[in-house]
Amino acid sequence: MADRPHVLIVEDEPSQRDILAYNLEAEGFEVTRAETGDEALTLFDEGQPDLVVLDWMLPGVSGIEICRRLKRRVAARETPVIMLSARTEEADRVRGLETGADDYVTKPYSVAELMARVRAQLRRTRPGTVGQVLDHAGIRLDPETHRVHRDGQELSLGPTEFRLLTTLMEKPGRVWSREQLLDRVWGRDIYVDSRTVDVHVGRLRKALRAHGGDDPIRTVRGAGYALG
After folding, report:
1. Are residues 27 and 57 in the same domain?
2. Which of 7, 21, 173, 193 is most buried by a 10 A CB count?
């Protein structure tokens, strides 16, 4: 399912890495694993995860330095980073957060608490994937029930159009390129021609205007599509 949240785990201890991956996959997340900081940077560029769980103590380049390098990248600025560390001093927590981490969890940690923190970060950046109802300009999308209403009227959307609308509604006003929509809606491992995006945007537009109203999807020539 292409709209599952994608989490990159960066942890050099195999047992910790396996526990994290098992619990995230059990929650329905797509998981990629890295053992070192350099591997993490490569995997980030290849997969563009929605969230990074990053251990401070890594062989070679430290997690702090990896976090710093990630946050310098335009593609990673909005990607939440949860730092894991055995360092419990307030100064260490402050350093981690000032480096760009969005949350800081000390070891040993409760897996249940970490899962809650992962969901909290995703509610901020990808609310539709964690069951949060999306509401914008009279359009209401409920990910739990897979229902969409516009001005109180229920709309009929196919599964691809539903995922497409979820992506657009999570960041109203943001312009998404066709390639970005292909990755988010169809998945990174599936080859689909970029013109397929245009076809499904057309179907989504038709569905959204089934009961009248203006076209809420904006075409940005040479760039892509945006909601509103």
Report:
1. yes
2. 7
